[in-house]
Amino acid sequence: MTRAPDLNLVPFVSVDHMMKLVLTIGTERFLTELSAYIEEDFQRWESFDKTPRVAAHSLDGVIELMPTSDGTLYGFKYVNGHPKNIQDGRQTVTAFGVLADVATGYPVLMTEMTILTALRTAAMSALAAKYLAPKGADTMAIIGNGAQSEFQALAFKAILGVTKLRLYDIDPVATRKCAFNLRNAGFEITACQSKQEAVEGAQIVTTVTADKQYATILTDNMIGSGIHINAVGGDCPGKTELHKDILLRSDIFVEYPPQTRIEGEIQQLAADHPVIELWEVITGRTQGRRDGQQITLFDSVGFAIEDFSALRYVRDRLKATGLYQNLDLLADPDEPRDLYGMLLRHEATIQGAA
Amino acid sequence: MTRAPDLNLVPFVSVDHMMKLVLTIGTERFLTELSAYIEEDFQRWESFDKTPRVAAHSLDGVIELMPTSDGTLYGFKYVNGHPKNIQDGRQTVTAFGVLADVATGYPVLMTEMTILTALRTAAMSALAAKYLAPKGADTMAIIGNGAQSEFQALAFKAILGVTKLRLYDIDPVATRKCAFNLRNAGFEITACQSKQEAVEGAQIVTTVTADKQYATILTDNMIGSGIHINAVGGDCPGKTELHKDILLRSDIFVEYPPQTRIEGEIQQLAADHPVIELWEVITGRTQGRRDGQQITLFDSVGFAIEDFSALRYVRDRLKATGLYQNLDLLADPDEPRDLYGMLLRHEATIQGAA
Predict the structure, then answer these.
(1) What are the structural domains of chain B?
(2) Which residue of chain A is at minimal alpha-carbon distance from B111?
(3) Which of A77, A270, A297, B116 measures 20 to 30 Å from A188, CA to CA?
(4) What is the pLDDT of residues A177-189, one digit of tens each?
């Protein structure tokens, strides 16, 4: 019998290690590389087990498990969404995830995913825009300047070459925070007084607000022809950002229709309203942007395969950086059938040491 | 704004800490107390969100997520089942789990659950037998002497007063291992040469074999009247241990019918074959054992609520024992909307230190 050493240990990436990993690689390079991993997985979309997330709803929020597998690796993310958390200094969304080997069922990576989810959401948005935004777009409006806004800006700069930002938030403090954080990132930044002002001259409009309600962040008159809308904030039942009339004028691109119809902007539309699956655009089966007049809408809700890509990416960067610790997560008796014997021998060890 | 300290930290119980926890409390006391936690949760069965496990099947095994919630706490377990793992020194089943606060979605405990699952499975078996086994039963046959066997023996000793064990395994090495591990545990142990010999004089018959196949560990002629069968090993589609004729002579008790009909011994029976839910027995709504002639069968597959009870139990024992470490699992920016700012400030800290 051959035994791999340290079968009990699983690499764990803490929040501290994740921050060091992002800073070591560089945020923009991290976003660019992560986006390439997502693109690769969307190109082999059909090889994945896909299932809508498993959600436990409560009065104050939701806890979800998002599993997927490509037959070789299995990944899942635990993620919560609790808008009221912000009142006592907690994050609205926190997450962690696990990547496992399908052949043995053994986890090969456990990692924080609060920061990683912020990065993958932005990387996904920019990947979609690479196929959908008008050519040469360099100006993006960001409506909602909370935790996700800087990541969106940096991903669109790194992957599409966006250099002009028009920021708006109902809370000017959020806008100042976003502008301050991005002050040395190479953007020309305009802090706007209204949504209307923010969308002026922008070829890309990103909405990323946080309220859990049917909101109308964008109304029909704000969206001219040729715009790409990156709708990130509407991502659960009862939470949308766009007026229905915009949806009716747009070509709508989604990650995974069974999930987006429940969680996305299109929950406002009939269940058979036509949508285009992004993987079909990325594989070249379907056209993305056709012309300069078309309004394209990426109705982003976040799908398990994007987390899977993020887990793969982090795992592939661990060895070179060493930015992880080993967790003693898996019981590893000398003889697999002798779990209780392992306990007894542990007792003997303790008594021997005493 | 009031902020709890150390919002980023989640207590983690490693394999080493779990072993120390079990040894500090004592295996039999741990099983008894854990069984009481399970009993408490079965008594409020109706207050739980229940869902069949979310399974990802592959050629070599299965990876499952088992979530449940009582509205205040949310728990899930990650567990794999890979029979071939034993060939390269890995466990057939490994597991870990998380308990979280429903109000905030924040995890409050992460723990190894390979050892803990072995304990909760045995605690559950003994709890069922407390309601179903014939009065005064002191002799148990254990067919299958692998990793679960000692835990079954100790749970039945602690909770029912079983003191005589009749062990059988197709591999005599497994029987010797089990007998050796239990040599000082206060049992009268008989190592048997056949299944037939093992069941002689036993009021309780526990089957806990591991092959993933339709097996016939018990045939009809081996089971006399009045016996309680604790069928632990048949726990996934295509894996059963009992001849169908035994099922037809037994009153069958199950954890959660929608799951047991897929995974349990009753996958051999019609989908509407009558079964009794154990929680109804534990709450007193339905009778368990009626008389000394009845054959009772606990068709055990393991349900998420039992893992939830186990997570609760471990969490309640942490403070007094200190047997955990804190994991830096949750991003905790000073200002919840300023996740990217946290990264920037981390960079400044690193540069300041350099």
Answers:
(1) 9-115+306-353 (3.30.1780.10), 132-302 (3.40.50.720)
(2) A329
(3) A297
(4) 999 999 999 999 9
